[in-house]
């Protein structure tokens, strides 16, 4: 494993520029990598919309709708996991390597990515608890509520990126424990938070806004399908940026995940 860099060895602005620059350089590959999972999610969400619309006013709570939602959950999460695997492999191995999409099946690598991703999400949720408590203490102040929401998001995203250092290793069939990821991230945690604030947080806020608009239109009138497509596109952009950030931080803090000594 590579040595954790000394204090100051992770420049916030320089790293953020490198992450965004690397992401933009690979952006032309995003449609290819996202094609299959995007179509899967579009069909799933479109099917659920049709089922809800055809069920009358209580269609959403009908047994058929509930079964469809439960059946869709594993399909949706595997679609996201498969995309993250393919994008990380593209970043780490190059677009000419096999296993960078599009593809029509999932495998053990995707299952490992999903399991690791769920664990990372749980840890990120736990890390956001102080922000949630701050929001509860904010009372009815709109400004305090916004500040608490931003703190909550920043805590969650920083934890997700810190523990998510295991994900690039998973994508290239290497093994890295959560403890090793945390040990590498902890000395530069504030710097990681700064990098997240400059890169991932603005995109996440954009995705959240689009998602809220989509949810509102589902319960009323409006151009639901275009907003659904926009939300899906933004989600894949955010996930690709996250993958680019994780790959860059892994290489800086732990070494190249494609090499055995970095695992």
Automatic annotation (TrEMBL):
Keyword Transmembrane in record:
yes
Transmembrane stretches, by residue range? 33-52, 64-92, 113-137, 143-167, 188-207, 227-249
- UniProt keyword annotations, A-Z: Membrane, Transmembrane, Transmembrane helix
Q: Does the keyword Transmembrane helix apply?
A: yes
Q: This protein is called what?
A: Uncharacterized protein
Q: Which organism is it from?
A: Limimonas halophila
């Amino acid at each position: 494993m590579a040595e954790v860099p000394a204090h100051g060895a992770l420049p916030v602005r320089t790293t953020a520029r490198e992450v965004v620059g690397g992401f933009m350089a690979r952006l032309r590959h995003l449609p290819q990598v996202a094609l299959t999972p995007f179509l899967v999610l579009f069909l799933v969400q479109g099917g659920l919309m049709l089922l809800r619309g055809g069920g009358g006013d209580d269609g959403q709570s009908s047994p058929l709708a509930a079964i469809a939602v439960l059946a869709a959950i594993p399909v949706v999460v595997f679609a996201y996991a498969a995309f993250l695997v393919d994008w990380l492999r593209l970043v780490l191995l190059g677009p000419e390597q096999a296993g960078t999409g599009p593809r029509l099946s999932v495998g053990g690598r995707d299952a490992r990515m999903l399991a690791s991703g769920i664990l990372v999400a749980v840890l990120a949720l736990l890390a956001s608890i102080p922000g949630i408590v701050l929001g509860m203490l904010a009372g009815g102040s709109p400004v305090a509520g916004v500040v608490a929401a931003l703190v909550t998001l920043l805590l969650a995203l920083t934890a997700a990126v810190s523990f998510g250092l295991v994900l690039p290793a998973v994508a290239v069939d290497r093994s890295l424990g959560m403890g090793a990821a945390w040990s590498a991230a902890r000395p530069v945690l504030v710097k990681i938070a700064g990098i997240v604030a400059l890169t991932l947080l603005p995109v996440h806020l954009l995705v959240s806004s689009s998602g809220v608009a989509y949810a509102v239109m589902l319960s009323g009138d409006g151009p639901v399908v275009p907003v659904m497509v926009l939300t899906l596109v933004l989600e894949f952009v955010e996930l690709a940026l996250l993958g680019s950030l994780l790959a860059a931080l892994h290489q800086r803090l732990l070494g190249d995940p494609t090499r055995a000594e970095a695992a």
